[in-house]
């Protein structure tokens, strides 16, 4: 099951996308993806969700009130760097496109109105690409364990660190206690 | 030159005309107490007739004798004395005549040079007239050419704002277009599902839930409703554009400026960057006779500038549109809290082709056009701006007396 998050300030667009993604087959080569789609009308609500749950793919409109698609995807990338990213927009100038590619590293820019087939193949391709990257990393890790470059403990720590940045660093207090929330320490001083 | 030179050889007759000669001859004859004749240098008698045997004395003024005084009866001494007397008289006369001739020559010279001067002046005048005619012609031609060029430039600027407009509109229209199109292709799939039911009519009780037709029916309704609304939106946008495109119809109409302002603002609103809002503070206005198309273009330009100024400032902002009647004028204010302008920018703001924006985003005719439109309505435009604080453009339109 691939989890997809879609942000667009227009509800009708979200509904239309839901219909397409529900009905159309999403496949890349022999690989068939089953999709679980979550839609959000506001980029802020979407970011809240991204902090709590893991997604495989973010799709964002470009022009939205409050935060444009590039800002949103940048923020989403900071939270979940492994997820693939797409922009779906009716209009963007060259500047926006350059930023989208350079700052966010989007997999694809899809214009509105979209073609259902193009959309599905872009989604499938992005998901397949992401899977490939993750698989590559896993294989590389296995190899590193094999040749003794890394221990399983280190790799596990790396994985945890990715999931929860900072979790592997222990913050010792002066009296030997472990400080879980540095804000409290700041207040004491 | 027709006048004789004053210093020519003088003849006797030039100095003494016949009447004067006779008077002098009579007086001399009286003094001599005998006959008397005066002849000129060639021997022709001037006065009296010379006796062939008469004694004669030459009348020498300079070198050559100019005539002779002769008398048959008078003594030699008396005749010489009479000759000397006549010579003294002739010398006097000569001086007088020379002076007159000199004066005449000078006057004649003056006249000739005056006449020459006069013809030269006349020629110059004719040339001047010809030149001025040609100049007029050339000016007319250039003015015409300038007018054509200006027209072309206005057109270019309009095209560039049409480009910006199109970019903004693209997003507005593409959104509904996107979901309507996608919905229709979804609907086609739903129809396929419904068509499948036909093949399983005998087994409808089982097939209906198996094909998920409850959902299909429900969603189809929703989908068609959404699509209808999307199409409605596209129609509205195009309607607004059409309303706006009256720009070319330069027809005077009795219009409410608030309405023009509103229509222009609606168009600009579509292309506003994030964080820019338009606020209306419009008081009721009396209608005036104006060119609504041009005014809408004017408002569009100025509000567009305001939006751009806020975008340049890189922070959220607000454009305030206000209108009121102030004595004899309708006053419209378009105020933004964007980047504002430097003193130099304000100074040049109304000059055509003055722009601070990058190439391609307009050629700097916005405010120049705005001013000419306002002037055409007998109004005026004022610009007040502070760097970093924002700009206010105030438009005054006179009310009919």
Can you walk through the features of this model?
The complex is a heterodimer of chains A (189) and B (401). Chain A has 189 residues and is of the alpha/beta class. Chain A has helices at residues 11-23, 43-52, 69-79, 94-104, 116-146, 152-163, 182-188; strands at residues 2-7, 26-28, 31-33, 35-40, 57-60, 84-89, 108-111. Helices cover 50% and strands 17% of the residues of chain A. In chain A, a hairpin with a 2-residue loop joins strand 2 and strand 3 (31-33). The longest helix of chain A is centred in the last third of the chain and has 31 residues, at 116-146. With 401 residues, chain B is α+β, with helices and mostly antiparallel strands. In chain B, helix 2 (18-32) packs antiparallel against helix 3. The A-B interface holds A 10, 12-13, 15-17, 19-20, 23, 63-68, 89-91, 93, 111-114, 116 and B 167-168, 170-183, 185-186, 189, 219, 222-223, 226, 229-230, 274.
Overall mean pLDDT of chain A: 87
| CATH C-level category of the largest domain in chain A | Alpha Beta
Q: Quaternary state, please?
A: heterodimer
How many H/I helical runs of chain B?
9
- Give the DSSP E fraction of chain B (strand runs of 2 or more residues): 15-25%
Report how far the terminal alpha carbons of chain A are from each other: 48 Å
Strand line-up of the largest beta sheet of chain B: 6-8-9-11-10
Q: So, the CATH homologous superfamily of the largest domain in chain A?
A: Response regulator
């Amino acid at each position: 099951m691939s989890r997809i998050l879609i942000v667009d300030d227009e509800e009708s667009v979200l509904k239309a996308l839901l219909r397409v993604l529900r009905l159309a087959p999403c496949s890349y080569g022999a690989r068939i993806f089953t999709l679980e789609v979550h839609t959000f009308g506001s980029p802020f609500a979407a970011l809240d969700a991204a902090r709590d749950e893991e997604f495989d793919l973010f799709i964002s409109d470009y022009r939205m009130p409050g935060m444009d698609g590039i800002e949103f995807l940048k923020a989403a990338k900071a939270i979940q760097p492994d997820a693939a990213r797409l922009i779906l927009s009716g209009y963007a100038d060259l500047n926006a496109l350059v930023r989208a590619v350079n700052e966010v590293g989007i997999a694809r820019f899809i214009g509105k109105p979209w073609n259902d087939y193009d959309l599905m193949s872009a989604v499938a391709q992005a998901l397949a690409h992401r899977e490939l990257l993750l698989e590559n990393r896993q294989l590389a890790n296995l190899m590193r364990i094999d040749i003794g470059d890394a221990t399983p403990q280190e790799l596990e720590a790396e994985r945890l660190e990715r999931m929860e940045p900072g979790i592997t660093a222990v913050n010792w207090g002066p009296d030997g206690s472990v400080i879980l929330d540095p804000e409290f320490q700041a207040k004491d001083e | 030159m027709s006048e004789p030179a004053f210093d020519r050889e003088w003849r006797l007759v030039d100095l003494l005309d016949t009447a004067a000669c006779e008077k002098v001859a009579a007086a001399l004859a009286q003094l001599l107490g005998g006959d008397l004749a005066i002849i000129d240098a060639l021997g022709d008698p001037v006065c009296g007739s010379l006796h062939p045997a008469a004694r004669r004395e030459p009348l020498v003024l300079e070198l050559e004798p100019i005539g002779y005084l002769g008398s048959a009866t008078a003594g030699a001494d008396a005749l010489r004395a009479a000759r000397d007397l006549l010579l003294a008289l002739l010398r006097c006369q000569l001086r007088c005549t020379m002076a007159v001739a000199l004066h005449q020559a000078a006057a004649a010279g003056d006249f000739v040079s005056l006449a020459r001067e006069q013809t030269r002046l006349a020629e110059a005048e004719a040339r001047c007239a010809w030149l001025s005619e040609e100049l007029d012609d050339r000016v007319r031609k250039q003015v015409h050419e300038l007018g054509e060029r200006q027209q072309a430039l206005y057109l270019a600027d309009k095209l560039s704002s049409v480009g910006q407009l199109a970019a903004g509109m693209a997003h507005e229209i593409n959104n509904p277009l996107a979901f309507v199109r996608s919905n229709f292709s979804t609907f086609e799939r739903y129809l396929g599902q419904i068509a499948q039911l036909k093949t399983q009519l005998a087994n409808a009780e089982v097939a209906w839930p198996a094909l998920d037709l409850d959902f299909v029916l429900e969603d189809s309704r929703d989908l068609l409703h959404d699509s209808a609304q999307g199409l409605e939106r596209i129609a509205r946008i195009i309607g607004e554009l059409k309303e706006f495109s009256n720009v070319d119809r330069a027809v005077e109409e009795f219009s409410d400026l608030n309405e023009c302002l509103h229509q222009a603002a609606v168009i600009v609103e579509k292309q506003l960057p994030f964080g820019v809002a338009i606020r209306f503070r419009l008081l009721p206005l009396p209608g005036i006779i104006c060119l609504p198309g041009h005014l809408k273009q004017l408002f569009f330009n100025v509000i567009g500038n305001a939006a751009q100024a806020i975008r340049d400032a890189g922070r959220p902002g607000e454009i305030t549109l206000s209108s009121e009647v102030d004595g004899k004028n309708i006053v419209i204010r378009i105020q933004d809290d964007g980047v504002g302008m430097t003193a130099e920018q304000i100074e040049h703001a109304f000059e055509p082709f003055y722009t601070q924006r990058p190439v391609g985003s307009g050629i700097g005719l916005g405010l120049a056009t705005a001013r000419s439109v306002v002037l055409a309505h007998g109004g005026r435009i004022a610009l007040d701006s502070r760097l970093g604080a924002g700009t206010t453009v105030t438009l005054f339109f006179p009310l009919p007396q």
